[in-house]
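Example (one chain per record):
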Amino acid sequence: MNYTLHQLKIFLKVSDLQSITKTAEELFLTQPAVSIQLKNFQDQFSVPLTEVVGRKLYVTDFGLEIAKVAEKIINEVEVLNYKTMTYHNQLAGRLKISVASTGKYVMPFFLAGFMRQHKGIDLVMDVQNKTLVVNSLQQNEVDFSLVSKMPDHLKTDQVQLLKNKLFLVGSPKLLQQRTKPKNKIFEEYPLIYREEGSATRNDMEAFIKSKKLSTYKKMELTSNEAVKQAVVAGLGYSIMPLIGLKNELKNGDLEIIPFRGLPIVTHWNLVWLKSKNLSPVAQAFLDYIKIEKERIISEHFGWYESY
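Predicted structure:
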């Protein structure tokens, strides 16, 4: 056999994503390049690694076993690279962070400078809803999590980063159509929710219950971006985190509706398990955050603080 590390990486990504197109996008390659390398890798095995059923690619049981071995090989190569960099007094290793969905608008700004300083660090950032983020923290699968609501059942330490502000928003297209006063807005149009397990959804439901608001009906979508586009299109209103609405507010695609009791204000917190022994990479990132967070907030979130 004469497979390459490049082929192992491509096959591992294909087995994970079950798609040539998605693999090409994630690895910044063309689809033909991925297909050629996958074929060259397959040619070294007498048993099929993948199969196509109904135009959909599936990894065979044998392929899954090969993927496990490929992952071990790639991880060992990474260890060699990290050890070499460490020998040359460079900080090296992997930093793993799970981020609640709307935290994707926050976390990159707190990572950018640190990643530029340390070229030997590989970043893995998993964006999920709050329930899955907290689960990854509890299972010790990550170094840190970014959440707006602290997990009460876990013993954690945290650094507070940025306010999380939730406003009632709607499309200006609906403004001229409204026939009822503002305090009856939920009776006239649907309220658009995130899915179960989302911290934003929990905040919305708690607010509506506390104010005893009557609602017309609700729609449920599974990402913050999907909710935003639905509101822009005029499908209804939603209570949304301000952090992801900068461009839409600037362009006039959305408007903030002043409403009694809003905004809901929590905080984005970088959290980690109290019992966790932070790696040198994780400790270095934590030190960086504590020193640089005020500068980062001032430099990148001035528009946000003005609301």
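Caption: The domain at 164-266 is CATH 3.40.190.10 (D-Maltodextrin-Binding Protein; domain 2).
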